Amino acid sequence: MAASAVPRTQPRTGEAVADDKRVVVLVSGHGSNLQALLDMAAEPGSGMAVVLVAADRPGAHGLERARRAGVDTAVVRTADHPDRPSFDLALRDLVAARPDVVCLAGFMRILGPGFVRAFPGRILNTHPSLLPAFRGAHAVREALAYGVKVTGCTVHLVDEEVDHGPVLFQAAVPVEPGDDEDRLHERIKQEERRLLPLAVRLLAEGRVRVEGRRAQVVTAEGVSR
Ligand code: GRF
Question: Number of folded domains in the chain?
């Protein structure tokens, strides 16, 4: 049976009920991290709603995942804007739907100050390396080429520098003999799909405290390390 015929879950639609935390997700590609977020929001009593999925290209498979889950979608293409600042502002205006969290889930565009300053402390990104190692668009390939024994993923708050903001979670992933980029990346993405929904939930619930470069989870007992 075609995967598209039967949704994996009964997700809530893009309409948030009154107290739901509102999550906007930006994607460029496959959208498996987006799917993890949609699945989390679809859990009964999650208190979370993905209210918009936006992509920078119409062919992003993540848009199809969003449609299947009944979530509004939008496309903002850089080619339709004369320069990066106007792309940033178009995306900002699109996302202005009172999000509690804006989540970059495989969004392969650099966001400038026009966007980042509109959502202070509310933008999360996931990156497939242990930052600050291997920033940029080819992190998995570069980690393999460097010959590292361990790489991983980083879920961090977004600031005005690329792959730079305060680190909320990291997970290590050993490089195995015979790994190629796809195989290693898929094991890294398994960790991202575990950590990103957790991070989005904690940030949406106001349970993340940021001081300088340090992002900590606020628990009943205090804060995490
Ligand atoms: C993730 O590894 C993310 O860190 C990187 O792109 C990948 C997106 O995967 N920027 P998917 O589209 O969520 O499957």
Answer: 1
